[in-house]
Amino acid sequence: MKRRIAALVFIVMVLSLFGCLHPIDPLKPEGEDTYSSESSSHFSESSFSEQSSSVPEVISSLPPEDKSSEITPPDPSLKELKKGDKGEEVLRMQERLKEMNWLFGEADGEYGTRTEEAVFRFQKHNGLEETGSADVYTLDLLYSDRAEKYLPLKGLKIGIDPGHQKKGNYEKEPVAPGSETMKTKVSSGTAGVVSRVPEYKVVLIVGLRLKELLENFGATVIMTREVNEVDLSNIDRAKIFNEAETDYAIRLHCNGSEDPTMYGVSVLIPKTHAMKDECRKAAEYLLASFCDVTKERNRGIKERREQTGFNWCERMIINIEMGYMSNEEDDLKLTDSEYQEKMCWGILYGIVSYFENSN
Predict the structure, then answer these.
(1) Does residue 269 form part of some domain?
(2) For every residue of 163-180, which 3-state class applies, written as one string?
(3) What is the pLDDT of residues 314-325, one digit of tens each?
(4) Per DSSP, which regions of the chain are E strands?
(5) Residue 76 domain-assigned?
């Protein structure tokens, strides 16, 4: 009997030693599980408290969180600029805005409407107060490495068709799908009354420069031609845009008239087209911006049903007639490199404005 009692005591001691027996809480309801995280065989209460007691010491030893990068005090040398201001500081700001694609056109040292729009655009994109006036916080960000380049045409396909070509192709093609009416495939275009420069050369110069600007603003550009020595009919050109699935297509042309007093710029759109409304909207933005930059006479938007390049194109498409080469003043401007640069910026601004107001 004594041996049995001794054996039981030994067993109890061994089980207690390995944590297999737990004290019974007399206040605990019968049948409730008495095993809890506090009495776990893996972590005793004393060992857990020893580990957790070191946490506050670690936290307290960490340096305080640096939030100074969230609100950076502006450069104290900066001073607010606003519409109507002129001078070197305005010119410096404009050059930076233009470098980062926020300003379209010339940096002339005068804080006008176009500069105000550029500042407003920059503020809106960067979550700043949208006033159009360049306060010190706007200027500080603009001049910093944190300023981002504006790429409003990223992901878009823009088609450019510099009209005509060096040698016309006077064979005939249908003016529209299914039409029995035939038109010349492509002509060589008009020429300057004074300069004698052919239209096909002027529009290619403008087209290639426009391509550079559009790509700088993020667009993928599809050109129907990049040299003058091609043989592409108007149907061929329309199909290039269709196959590329362009988001916006523009035909570049100059006008001609038997009346030498005719001058100014106009935009043509298809009279019947699945995307006629979008064509008109694009034409409105293009014409307004072109005339704003070049100060050329606005001759309005005209609908055309006889243009093969319109009728065969399934994409949104417009045609700008940039001036009359039959007019002496227009001719000299259209063949002037500085004016050609202005035309390109005016077209670019019109394209960007269309997409800015379509999203």
Answers:
(1) yes
(2) CCCCCCEEEEEECCCCCC
(3) 999 999 999 999
(4) 157-162, 169-174, 182-186, 220-223, 248-255, 265-270, 298-304, 317-324
(5) no
